[in-house]
Structure prediction request, 175 residues.
Amino acid sequence: MPVIQTNYRADKYVLHVTRLIDKNIDACKKLFPESIRFDYIKTLFVVPKYERKGVLIKEYEKFKGKRELYPFQMYIYWEPDAYGNILYSDSKLLTVVYAQNGEPFYDPYKYRDASDDVKENIYDFIRKSGKVIMAVDCENADPYKLYGVIKNLKKEELEKITRIVLYDDYHTIIA
Prediction:
């Protein structure tokens, strides 16, 4: 469905673009870690009941009246408040987004990713190995970051990993 429409006024464009977002947003799910509730992220971009008359106008009025409380003064669907820069860190963003959905966010260690250098070192080691047994000291390494690295391996690289042992930390039990 094309974005540009002939003879559309602004109100029809807003509805059209909102429909496009609603129809296609689930394709973005794969861009987020599985441990993050994507339905909460989705709520930032899809206005509930947007097809009903007056809903989008009410949202526009809310935005116009409190624009300084929106990140970079750009619209998202939420209850604006003086949170400061919620885009400062993933932790701050997720804490606010979860709270707006009535749930506390307790798992900041789940969204952090390993650096590109760390990933490449692990990939390189596995590529050069015939058989891999991983021993993870969870006191000094994050099992969720490791999961993110392993998840991106090719099938032939994954087949080289015969065992993963997690030990020595509270997160071992959770992981």
In short: Helices lie at 10-24, 38-42, 55-65, 90-100, 116-128, 143-151, 155-158, 170-174. The longest helix spans residues 10-24.
